[in-house]
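We emphasize that the prediction below concerns an isolated chain of 192 residues; any contacts that depend on oligomerization or on bound cofactors are therefore not represented. The input was used exactly as deposited, without trimming of termini.
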Amino acid sequence: MPVYSVSKRNPMSRKYKFHNKEGLYFVSFAVVYWIDVFTREEYFNIITENLDFCRKNKGMEIYAWCVMPSHLHLLFRAKDNNPGEVLRDFKSFTSKQLLKAIAENIQESRKEWMLWLMERAGLKNGNVQKCQFWQQHNQPIEVWSPAVIEQKVEYIHQNPVEAGFVAEPHHWKYSSALDYCGGRGVLEIDLV
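Result of the prediction step, given as a token string:
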């Protein structure tokens, strides 16, 4: 099943497709209701471990990334010309892992509230069996010129600065900004 199918419920989904399967794409996707889930190291680690798995085993070339409390930004390409499938698999697998981690975390003070909201989101979506973790849209934007690539990398890395979490992009642990400053971040990337 394609990641973005045109349905009667959402005719606007035609705009958000991976038209060029060989392309380099900027995508952003968020937790349902923009819930700030990524506030604990173990939740961040689920994302970085799965991005690393996709890079090593699914042909995802990652050029820039950033995990914010409620959303994720990626600049990536799929070696096997299947960006929609790679992203779909990443989101599906991480949603299961994150829902389980939240449910089993005895220190998670917002557990019931988050799971209740995710269950409500799932009830509103006919494609979901129980709980929905990620919003369905990714809004892929193909980038091809060096100027646009640079702009997207800058945007991704400035996100934590703009949000007031850090003063410098490379201070945010969960992004590729450190890699672009000559250091080594928590996730190996493919530099532009």
